[in-house]
Amino acid sequence: MELLISSAITEAWFHKLHKHLDSDVIIVGAGPSGLLCAAELAARNVSTTLFESKLAPGGGMWGGAMLFNSIVIQAETIHLLDKYGIRYQSQGNDLFTADATEATSALIYHAAHNGAAIFTGICMEDVLVRNDSVCGVVANWNPVKRLDMHVDPLSFSSRIVLDATGHPSEVVKVLTLKNDVRLRLPDGVMKSERSMNAEAGEKACVEYTGEVFPGLYVSGMAACGVSGSNRMGPIFGGMLLSGYKAAGLIARALGKDYA
Ligand code: 48F
Predict the structure, then answer these.
(1) Backbone phi, then psi, for 36, in 5-degree steps?
(2) Which residue of 17, 155, 174, 193 sits 20 to 30 Å from the alpha carbon of 93, by its own alpha carbon?
(3) Which domains does the chain show, CATH number per domain?
């Protein structure tokens, strides 16, 4: 019996890995913006691979604020909560709250159920660049990185890569550190995130969601960070709208219908 279990697990996992060595889209980071984007793209039959360095997808959405696990969403995002079956309560002033656990688990479930391949414990450490375009990522086990083990990574190719790594903007960071590139951002360079301003940050994270270098898109807090915009704290409407916008832009770039 034990060997049958081992055989079933390794067969299923290596099948998933092999199928996703090459995808339409690689999303790095399974926070709210990356998960929403993955759910939307996978629903449109875009082959989508999601790498998350931690064991559990969800990023900063589980913890609400200071571990008070409720999140705040604005009225204009309610249609996405309805779409993904997340319940909410009005708190007045066009603000709503949702249970962080329900919201996070719903996004994870729909991303996986719609067909995105989610790989956890795997960390993006470099990008593939060919003909002045990002065309994949280089990844390794997060424990290998954390233990500083001298082990080479594997490479994964895609038409498009999305940096959804949140505050550190890791994909854009490694691209600009290792390559002499100019980004499609004011001044052509990556900026640093600015201090908390919920209103400005929410607007900026949607506005700057898009392609920053051929083949490389940013969403969520990474879009705020690289554009030098403000952080916004525990309000999540912008993250969901950003993931939704990223999915629309990416699907169109791939020539897929997007309602
Ligand atoms: O930070 P995160 O939740 O990204 P997001 O979608 O949402 C931001 C909010 O949670 C919050 C906020 C909103 O009010 O400010 O911070 O922009 O999730 C990012 C995910 O990326 C993973 C990380 O573990 C987290 O789950 N990640 C970061 N670097 C890597 C990575 C990497 N190099 N490889 C793989 N995953």
Answers:
(1) -65, -45
(2) 193
(3) 25-65+101-253 (3.50.50.60)
Task: Output the tens digit of pLDDT for each of the chain's 259 residues.
Answer: 999 999 999 999 999 999 999 999 999 999 999 999 999 999 999 999 999 999 999 999 999 999 999 999 999 999 999 999 999 999 999 999 999 999 999 999 999 999 999 999 999 999 999 999 999 999 999 999 999 999 999 999 999 999 999 999 999 999 999 999 999 998 899 999 999 999 999 999 999 999 999 999 999 999 999 999 999 999 999 999 999 999 999 999 999 876 6
**Atom 34 (ligand 1) nearest CA:** 123
Query: Using H for helix, E for strand and C for coil, what is the string for 9-58?
Result: HHHHHHHHHHHCCEEEEEEECCCHHHHHHHHHHHHCCCCEEEEECCCCCC
Nearest CA to ligand 1 atom 29: 165
Pocket lining: 49 vs ligand 1, CB cutoff 6 Å: no
241 lines ligand 1 (CB under 6 A): no
